[in-house]
Amino acid sequence: MSRRRVSAVVAALMLAGAAPVVLPAGSAVAASCSSYPNWVAGAWYNAGDIVRYTDGKAYIAEHANPGYDPTISTWYWEPYACDGGSDTPSGNFVVTEAQFNQMFPNRNPFYTYSGLVAALSAYPGFANTGSDTVRKQEAAAFLANVSHETGGLVHVVEQNTANYPHYCDWSQPYGCPAGQAAYYGRGPIQLSWNFNYKAAGDALGIDLLNNPWLVQNDAAVAWKTALWYWNTQSGPGSMTPHNAMVNGAGFGQTIRSINGSLECDGRNPAQVQSRVDAYQRFTQILGTTPGGNLYC
């Protein structure tokens, strides 16, 4: 989409470190399976909660539920890898939970590593294409941009509530069924505007047009919307951020695709530098090189 998702005012507010609207900031510590609470039938669980089932294995609630059986209600629960090896990548993902925690030591507890891992199935090519170096560079690039957009994974929603009514484009045939002020920025790449919620929801098979609040209440959905933008949208750029990284265009082109109209070509070099600094730090954590073409 050619229309920008989040305003310069919003970006500035995030970088200023304004207090989050929902959920306090905090950090999470990786744990072994035995450290998680035992699952209790009939107890209420929120999305992102992790329990130890009677089989000794751990499960994470992908959707809030009233204590459904994790081995039966697989839409609500997913297996969670927690054998104590938090320094081991989950599945094919090149970032370990320990590395994730190192990148975001003060992150909001809403942004769970397990939620990110659960979201990867929506775009299996993400951070899983090309050489080990390319895969790590793409993961670092995505997380660096996400870090910049959310103040280090602190902000779940857009901070300037006065902007909220702005993101409804009534010229769209479907309008704004959730309300004039319902489509404000949410999630790791601050999805906003009714047409973006519609497009992301259609692509992911989730009705975000009528229920945009899922993006701030369900960690896996939040991560999926960020991956949707990363893998399918070019924004003000000429390619998707995913293609920029796997085809060798460089990190600078991911900046252009996310916020190039406000930051690139000398418009705001400080913001570009902030993204580049995060990318270089994250590639170092992942034990790889940043490659060339870092700036836009």
UniProtKB/TrEMBL annotation:
Signal peptide: 1-30
Domain Chitin-binding type-3 intervals: 36-80
Gene3D superfamilies: 1.10.530.10, Carbohydrate-binding module superfamily 5/12, Endochitinase, domain 2
A Pfam family assignment: Glyco_hydro_19
InterPro entries to which the protein is assigned, alphabetical: CBM5/12, Glyco_hydro_19, Glyco_hydro_19_cat, Lysozyme-like_dom_sf
GO MF annotation list: hydrolase activity
Entry keyword Cytoplasm: no
Keywords for the protein's UniProt record, in alphabetical order: Disulfide bond, Hydrolase, Plant defense, Signal
SMART domains membership: ChtBD3
Domain of life where this protein originates: Bacteria
Name this polypeptide is given: Glycoside hydrolase family 19 protein
